[in-house]
From TrEMBL:
Keywords annotated in UniProt: Signal
UniProt cross-references to InterPro entries, sorted A to Z: LysM (IPR018392), LysM_dom_sf (IPR036779)
Pfam annotation, one family: LysM
The organism of origin for this protein: Rhododendron simsii
Protein name: LysM domain-containing protein
Signal peptide: 1-18
Domain LysM as annotated: residue spans: 165-209
Length: 246
């Protein structure tokens, strides 16, 4: 699916302590300075694992947030298996600043362990949702925390509130197919992602896909915070209806 190639151009690693790095890879545009919102990215698990492991890897505070983002019953245990190559939706809080969106409070962060290398962390541990953008490999120190800047945005699209979904482009996918699946338009995807032509789409890239949220669910989200069950019901219905129509 090309996760270890083109995805390495999407995000930047920051060292939480000791070293400050400037991101050079593309991020989702976010011009609502100071705004916070729900962020969502698709993570393709490289190996068989559990929900508990995914929760820890992405520093998700409550298991129920992960369950809600994936439409799983609240009673689902942390030991619930996740198959290799299974895609999970990762929820987090997005903060807009300096024209882009980033996870609030420098989360998630990854602690370097003995034997780690930059490529291993970026391409394998996070399945391409992080990029080896540190020029000096000697900066990686066992015990050091690396901030993983997942892409996100709080901007409205077409005057409507949306959730900007970080969608990993599978091999062979087209802009038109993705637009149809997520009930948006090809022009919207091209504009959001700075693409001049559908031919510019790369397998393995993380695409900014706007997910529609009904006004009723948007109000519930704003009142109740991380009410992912409300959000995902709306999103799943939109995607299901789109698939049935097409």
């Amino acid at each position: 699916m090309g996760f270890t190639t083109a995805l390495l151009t999407v995000l930047s690693f920051y060292l939480v302590a000791a070293v400050t790095l400037t991101p050079t890879a593309a991020q989702f545009a976010c011009n609502s300075t100071g705004a916070t919102c729900n962020g969502l990215v698709g993570y393709v698990s490289p190996n068989s694992t559990t929900l508990g492991h995914i929760k820890s890897l992405f520093d998700i505070k409550n298991l129920r947030n992960l369950l809600g983002a994936n439409g799983l019953p609240p009673s689902t245990p942390s030991t619930h298996p996740v198959a290799a190559n299974e895609t999970l939706q990762i929820p987090f809080v997005c903060l807009c600043r300096n024209g882009t969106g980033l996870p609030r409070n420098h989360r998630p962060a990854y602690t370097v362990v003995p034997g780690d290398g930059l490529y291993h962390i970026a391409a394998e541990v996070f399945a391409g949702l992080a990029v080896n953008n540190i020029s000096n490999a000697n900066l990686i120190i066992v015990g050091e925390d690396l901030w993983i800047p997942l892409p996100c945005s709080c901007d409205e699209v077409g005057g409507e509130r949306v959730v900007h979904y970080g969608y990993v482009v599978p091999s062979g996918a087209t802009v038109e197919e993705i637009a149809q699946e997520y009930n948006t338009t090809q022009d919207t995807l091209l504009a959001l992602n700075g693409l001049t032509s559908p031919k510019d789409l790369l397998a393995g890239a993380v695409l900014d896909v706007p997910l529609q949220v009904s006004a009723n669910n948007a109000q519930k989200l704003s009142l109740q915070g991380w009410s992912w069950s409300y959000l995902l019901i709306s999103i799943h219905l939109v995607v299901l209806c789109s698939r049935l129509i097409n």
